[in-house]
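Appendix B. Raw example, untouched.
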Amino acid sequence: MPKLNALVAGSTGYIGVQLIKLLVKHKYINIKYLCGNSSVGKKISNYDISLSKKKLPTIIKFDKKLLKDVDIVFTALPNGEAQDISNHLTKNITLIDLAADFRLEKGSEYLKWYKKKHRALSLIKKSLYTLPEINGHNLKKYQIISCPGCYPTSILLPLIPLFKNKLVKVNNIIIDSKSGYSGAGRGVHKKYRNKNLYESLSAYGVGFHRHNSEIDQMLKKFTKKKLGFNFTPHLTPMFRGILSTIYIDLETNVTQSKVIKILKDFYKNDIFVNILKADSLISTNDVINSNNCHISVCKSKYKNKIIILSAIDNLIKGGAGQAVQNLNMKFRFPLKTALS
């Protein structure tokens, strides 16, 4: 099978570099172009020494003329820039976006949460917000694949099966998530230079973090009841990983063991989602450098409540790995390709 030519735009950010590290192992992909702005003329090995022995192109500035030579475009760019690239796509090119440009189904919602007008409104209907274990089977119909944010990935994977099976009350969910600082991008050191980044824990985006919009949009597909949740993210003094702690009220006669059984049945054919034994105490260290999500269902001191722990690597399952997983599903490649 001939390799597909790929262009990576935004190649030097934490997510972009992680994506390249996966794609160089992908036997069906040839990295044709690496694009950047301030990094033009540099080698990608300047940003990760482990890539120094790989034959990779020098970073160049994106130009729409490059699109005639590629089959796939990966965009790991600041929000809004993938919209501009999408306007130049021909019908034979697939765009896989790792930012937020096509995550929301309405332009008005994008304006509300990202404070800027959507510049490719007509293409939203050609895109699919794709959490692969949930709706990846629909990918073949869409030209633009929108990869979920890292926090929503860790939150939606445990919650959607419970919503779908009507096991939990949907109006009083509390979500506490903690992420490594790589989730804030390479600019994190400037942005948080007064926060003692390496020795402190910081809450941010309290009540109004942008990922609320994704969580709300996706969960509403699985309930007709009024949805209510509080989501608070935190930045931790570690480089990578996310641990989400989710507090849930159970419906009448629903038990911890029933929740675990439903989750195990739901994900029995999904190799990257692991439902652990009851009350397992998990950590981000369990999933670092993998495309896995570990989920543990824990008892609460209250009979009608449970606590769910969900751990992922924000740069892989919450970013580059999920993009490659969507790539593999879209083109019917073996699912573990570049992700084993």
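End of appendix B.
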